[in-house]
Amino acid sequence: MKSGFVTLFGRSNVGKSTLLNRLVGTKVAITSPKPQTTRHQIQGVVHTEEGQIVFVDTPGIFTTSKDNLTKYLNKTAQNALKDVDIVVHVVDPTRPIGPEDKKIFSIIRELKLPKVLVINKIDVYQPRYLASFEALADEYDTVVQLSAKDGQHTKALVHALIELLPEGEPLYEHGQFTNLDNEFWFAELIREKLFLRLGEEVPYSLTVKVDEITRRPDNTLYIKARIITNADRYKGMIVGKGGRGIKEIGQSARREIENATDSSVYLDMQVIVNEHWTEEYK
Ligand SMILES: Nc1nc2c(ncn2[C@@H]2O[C@H](COP(=O)(O)OP(=O)(O)OP(=O)(O)O)[C@@H](O)[C@H]2O)c(=O)[nH]1
Ligand SMILES: [Mg+2]
Description:
Elements: E1 2-9, H1 16-24, E2 42-47, E3 51-57, H2 68-79, E4 86-91, H3 99-109, E5 115-119, H4 127-134, E6 142-145, H5 154-164, H6 182-197, E7 206-215, E8 221-229, H7 232-239, H8 244-261, E9 265-273
Parallel strand pairs: 1-3, 1-4, 4-5, 5-6, 8-9
Antiparallel strand pairs: 2-3, 7-8
Helix pairs in contact: 6-8
């Protein structure tokens, strides 16, 4: 048997989390068209007959801002390169090679690990950008072009990784797909709905905490969550006119949690202002 850890590394928005979900076959990481969606290392497990791959999803490397959250996200991503077996550099051929990609080349060049280049989004690529990534093939052990969105060639990636992994015992039990607990997972689903619904700056001004999950006698799952944001004006944008915004966010989060848990859910959400919430991201 083969087994080991494979880090998905790349700039924001290239589709690392979408790829993780596609590979695992179930949603373990939230995704959005906005950069800096992922904030933590998230593990997703692929079980095959030849072995087990534990993927580590990471926040996107971001070089255009220098705030504390960005520093934390870049650091969290780089920490996910320690003690792993393979690094997968995910790139997006709908855009030219960016300063983040250059930073990533310089980071991974120093690593004594097998390196795989994944050129994602081949369902929508720009030929000239694709060619510029293809020209980098010599720097990597393997190059795979695929689409995380429609699933094209993702099996080829799994085969290539199994080849490169060391022999080893499974790291996760059969049927286990992630390291996340429900508190974290439900908070992430709520944060995803906020990312999808709110304009440019608001998603970066907030975090979500789940404080309580209780199974009630009627079998309903009661979930108490706090949306914590920096300022009153953001709170106003989240809550929306007559509370319509928060209601819609609550409904879509509840629906998804209901589908995932196969039970009815009562989602009790509060929006509070605490300008110090980013201090945990240091
Ligand atoms: N067309 C197309 N879109 C994709 C593909 N993979 C991801 N996307 C889209 O790209 C956007 C970003 O996807 P994410 O998976 O959130 O990207 P990420 O790299 O995890 O981003 P961060 O967490 O911010 O670093 C989303 O709108 C996805 O739907 C793909 O193969 N094809
Ligand atoms: Mg992500």
